[in-house]
Design a protein that fits this description.
Elements: H1 2-20, E1 31-38, H2 45-63, E2 72-79, H3 84-97, E3 102-104, H4 109-114, H5 116-122, E4 126-127, E5 147-148, H6 154-168, E6 174-179, H7 182-198, E7 203-207, H8 215-223, E8 228-232, H9 236-248, E9 253-256, H10 264-269, E10 277-280, H11 290-301, H12 311-329, H13 336-344, E11 371-376, E12 379-382
Parallel strand pairs: 1-2, 1-3, 3-4, 4-5, 6-7, 6-8, 8-9, 9-10
Antiparallel strand pairs: 10-11, 11-12
Helix pairs in contact: 2-12, 6-7, 8-9, 12-13
Length: 388
């Protein structure tokens, strides 16, 4: 009888041990599968090429070293064409059909916002959504537990830019061109905060996602006597606005939110872009920090074309560093809950690619400070320390 009891006890321990090692969706003995949703065919499809390429470069670097706990990391990329409804379809496919372990880098504020109900229902974490919107780290929103943001928010960026403008010219008249969606909505929060702080009115001009003509907005800024214009766009929008201003003889100082740091803005704008000042929330790819140094080394190793290097390719690389650290912290036998706990254990973590980051149960914000970079003779030059 005693032998039977002992045998049953041992069998129970073996079952418990096996359950602790039970495979999570997307995790096999030799692989971890993650899902990425990008714009591969829409108005910002160039980002859909650059960001995953930067990610895969870092994942290759990790995989050749043996991966994470002996597992290779594989990334599947789906297209949403910068459309929130298509993002939902892509997320369902990745989670339900492909059985990915987690989502990562869903591109764009509105697409990332649209997948919240799916995250809530499935319990699948979303690491480093590819948007600066601080709504991603709002812990009062649906599925906040599952979202780990990396970027300083658009609201903070807008407020910092207005602070900077008024500190240098108290008589400045400020205009703001914003995308009429969740991106712009988050950025407008910073504008409203600054208006209340300084007792000013910011002239606001909206545009639709994917717009290519900005004559109306630029003319309105000119008629309003606006001296300083903030542009909440990506690449095409700031270039077009500055070239339009040049063509009609409108002289103003132009600024941009995080996505406009892309070096192509300066290349495409040419003379019209001289002095353009943009917000950035990571260590610059050309800086001496360890992350950018590794980035440049890997670009050389993998023969990445010069035209691909820069903000968005680097963004894929930098956010992949966060993803990999989360996978490492999730343990040898990872599940989605252990991934969440692992990320929430990071405190003043020096990633080498971002300023020190902290996550915990009540804070999934990531970076909460920015630096200003200005185009001077075609090169981006830091003109401030870190601001918040």
């Amino acid at each position: 009888m005693k032998k039977c009891i002992k045998l049953s006890f041992l069998l129970m321990l073996m079952v418990m041990g096996c359950s602790n090692r039970a495979s999570s969706p997307g995790v096999s003995e030799d692989e971890i599968l993650i899902g990425n949703i990008q714009d591969l065919s829409g108005p910002i499809k160039e980002l859909g090429k650059l960001i995953p390429a930067g990610t895969n470069m870092y994942l290759d670097h990790i995989n050749v070293q043996g991966g994470i706990h002996g597992r290779q990391i594989k990334m599947l990329v789906e297209d949403h064409a910068y459309n929130p409804q298509k993002a939902v379809v892509a997320a369902k496919k990745l989670i339900e059909k492909d059985q990915v372990f987690c989502l990562y880098n869903v591109l764009g504020t509105s697409p990332a916002e649209a997948v919240r109900p799916i995250l809530e229902k499935s319990g699948v974490p979303l690491i480093a959504p590819a948007t600066n919107s601080s709504s991603m780290s709002d812990m009062s929103r649906q599925a906040a537990k599952y979202i780990f943001h990396t970027d300083a928010g658009y609201d903070l960026q807008t407020r910092v830019l207005i602070d900077y403008i008024l500190e240098n010219n108290s008589a400045a008249k400020i205009g703001f061109a914003y995308q009429d969606d969740d991106y712009g909505e988050n950025a407008l929060l910073g504008s409203v905060e600054a208006e209340e702080k300084y007792g000013i009115t910011v002239q606001k001009e909206s545009f639709q996602r994917g717009a290519t003509d900005f004559m109306g907005q630029t003319m309105n800024f000119m008629k309003g006597g606006i001296t300083d214009v903030i542009i909440g766009g990506i690449v095409r929008e700031p270039v077009t606005i500055m070239k339009t201003a040049q063509a009609i003889g409108y002289k103003a100082q132009f600024y941009g939110l995080g996505p406009t740091v892309d070096p192509r803005v300066g290349l495409l704008a040419g003379e019209a872009g001289e002095g353009f000042t943009a917000v950035y929330w990571a260590y610059h790819p050309d800086s001496d920090h360890s992350g950018p140094a590794l980035y440049r080394k890997l670009c050389e190793k993998y023969n990445v074309p010069e035209k691909m290097r820069g903000l968005y390719h680097y963004y894929g690389f930098a956010t992949a560093v966060v993803l990999v650290e989360g996978l490492r912290k999730a343990g040898k036998y990872p599940n989605r809950e252990s991934l969440i706990r692992g990320l929430e254990s990071l405190k003043n973590w020096e990633s080498g690619v971002f300023p020190p980051m902290t996550y915990n149960r009540n804070d999934h914000a990531g970076v909460e400070s920015v630096i200003l970079l200005q185009l001077q003779e075609g090169k981006q030059v830091a003109i401030t320390d870190w601001l918040n």
